[in-house]
Inverse folding.
């Protein structure tokens, strides 16, 4: 069995998730070959097909597709594996369509040789298997622990013709942060379960009583209740404080990926079975709006 | 200009989900359905584009599924789409993304849609495949995960959301398909007069069998609730007692609560 791993870089720097693909291939028990549009190969043993980013573009899925197809032609892999990221979910279906093969998105585990996926906000799981001899996969970021970046690749340059009408203009840096959650020792986060914008103040007060910072889940940020700089999750910040308190957060995959490495996790939720309970060390079944004042009083008295 | 918006109807994600009798999907009884959240942004962006271009574009909204998806289509019409196409398929939950994309591509082929909007993923499956696959099938330019949309002189300026708060800007000439991320715009609520007007708009139904040409590429083996690791300590009951026990645990297990 052979897996072609499609690695990812940004402005010349290999993304760590590329090493998660290696871990995934190891779990699969597959021989690995890598392909990357970039400047230099990842630090892995094995063959790496490298296409020059100056020629194929920082972001150009039409051209990157041609690069991946060329590597597939040379290697004839059973699986073509991407990270389920803004790069991977954008590129993978194009490769699958060109090959006319099935794609399995956001694999979280391998169970009895089948791919396990989460659905409905991680409230359900399912196992799937692709029907053809070959398949395209995307792997959930953080689901497989990255291997250490060590080793020396056997690099082979890739040249392929292609054309595209897309024009990458450039990156726009993240908004200036008024808070650095990455440095916070305690984060108390508000989720949709707090009910309305006015109630966020109660969670902010609770964060203060704990001596921590306010975090938030994506829906709360999209609704304009909390500034984006406070967002925890794959599209916000990935955090690992000593204590993480999730208030009214159901635990969508994207949020869990951003906080599950915290040292100690407390979830406060009315629903005992909310997916956040999977990541939590303590699951408090309560309405956080009622519990918060009681907690604050005791914290201040301490 | 012709615009197509593809929407899906999904269960409310706050629901409690149960596995169905055959163990291959969730039980659809007792679930409340609504328009996929990502697709609301797609509909809103299509309507905003129509408004920007002096009402000239003709906006078709399409959905695949059983009779209930008519509600989602009616909402899209009330938000400002011009006509609706209901691809009737009582068994759409058993179609994989490859087949759903096939149905949409078969419908759109030869109709010369200049811009196609979809959500970046559905809230239930979350495969993030259908939009991109449709674009590939039709030969449209495509980019994904939009949190910003501009249009001038036949070119879309798309702002894509990447990881960690980073964004990128890409120019995409028409014909194009773009997939919409949460937060792209502020989807409007249909007003009562617009709900009334929507009742008079064209509403076409097409059986899925007339459009489907592909076999499934991926088979669902089994569906099940997540196995509970059961490691979490559960606290419930009297709030004062719960608070005392929680703080006791935090003092013992962490170094940051004294």
């Amino acid at each position: 069995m052979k897996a072609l791993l499609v690695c990812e870089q940004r402005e010349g720097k290999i993304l760590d998730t590329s090493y998660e693909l290696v871990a995934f291939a190891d779990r699969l028990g597959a021989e690995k070959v890598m392909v990357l549009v970039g400047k230099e190969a990842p630090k892995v043993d094995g063959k790496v097909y490298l296409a020059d980013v100056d020629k194929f573009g920082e972001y150009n899925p039409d051209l990157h597709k041609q690069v991946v197809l060329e590597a597939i032609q040379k290697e004839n892999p059973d699986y073509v594996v991407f990270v389920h990221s803004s790069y991977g979910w954008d590129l993978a279906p194009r490769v699958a369509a060109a090959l006319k093969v099935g794609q399995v998105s956001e694999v979280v585990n391998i169970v009895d040789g089948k791919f396990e996926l989460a659905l409905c906000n991680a409230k359900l799981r399912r196992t799937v298997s692709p029907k053809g001899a070959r398949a395209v996969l995307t792997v959930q970021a953080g689901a497989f622990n990255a291997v250490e970046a060590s080793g020396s690749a056997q690099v082979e340059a890739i040249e392929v013709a292609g054309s595209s009408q897309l024009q990458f203009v450039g990156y726009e840096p993240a908004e200036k942060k008024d808070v650095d959650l990455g440095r916070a020792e305690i984060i108390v986060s508000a989720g949709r379960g707090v009910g309305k914008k006015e109630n966020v103040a109660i969670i902010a007060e609770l964060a203060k009583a704990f001596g921590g910072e306010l975090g938030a889940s994506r829906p709360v940020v999209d609704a304009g209740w909390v500034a984006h700089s406070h967002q925890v999750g794959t599209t916000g910040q990935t955090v690992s404080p000593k204590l993480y308190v999730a208030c009214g957060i159901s635990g969508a995959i994207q949020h869990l990926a951003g906080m599950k490495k915290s040292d100690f996790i407390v979830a406060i939720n009315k629903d005992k079975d909310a997916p956040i309970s999977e990541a939590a060390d303590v699951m408090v079944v309560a309405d956080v709006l009622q519990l918060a004042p009681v907690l604050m009083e005791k914290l201040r008295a301490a | 200009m012709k615009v197509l918006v593809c929407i899906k109807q999904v269960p409310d994600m706050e629901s409690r989900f149960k596995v169905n009798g055959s163990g291959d999907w969730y039980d659809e009884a007792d679930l409340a359905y609504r328009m996929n959240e990502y697709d609301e942004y797609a509909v809103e962006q299509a309507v905003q584009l129509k408004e920007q271009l002096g009402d000239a574009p003709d906006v078709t909204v399409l959905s695949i599924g059983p009779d209930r998806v008519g509600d989602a289509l009616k909402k899209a019409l009330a938000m400002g789409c011009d006509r609706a196409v209901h691809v009737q398929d009582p068994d759409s939950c058993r179609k994989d993304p490859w087949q759903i994309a096939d149905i949409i591509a078969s419908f759109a082929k030869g109709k010369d849609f200049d811009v196609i909007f979809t959500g970046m993923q559905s809230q239930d499956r979350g495969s993030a495949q259908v939009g991109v696959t449709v674009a590939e099938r039709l030969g449209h330019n495509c980019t994904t995960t939009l949190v910003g949309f501009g249009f001038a002189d036949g070119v879309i300026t798309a702002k894509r959301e990447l990881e960690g708060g980073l964004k990128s800007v890409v120019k995409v000439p028409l014909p194009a398909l773009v997939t919409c991320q949460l937060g792209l715009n502020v989807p409007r609520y249909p007003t009562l007069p617009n709900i009334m007007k929507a009742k008079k708009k064209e509403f076409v139904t097409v059986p899925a069998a007339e459009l489907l040409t592909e076999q499934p590429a991926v088979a669902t083996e089994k569906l099940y609730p997540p196995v509970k690791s059961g490691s979490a300590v559960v606290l419930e009951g009297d709030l004062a007692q719960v608070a005392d026990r929680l703080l006791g645990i935090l003092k013992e297990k962490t170094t940051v609560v004294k």
About this structure: Chain B has a mean pLDDT of 95. The longest strand of chain B covers residues 141-152. Residues 2-210 of chain B form a domain with the Rossmann fold fold (CATH 3.40.50.620). Helices of chain B lie at 37-52, 69-79, 97-108, 130-138, 192-198, 239-253.
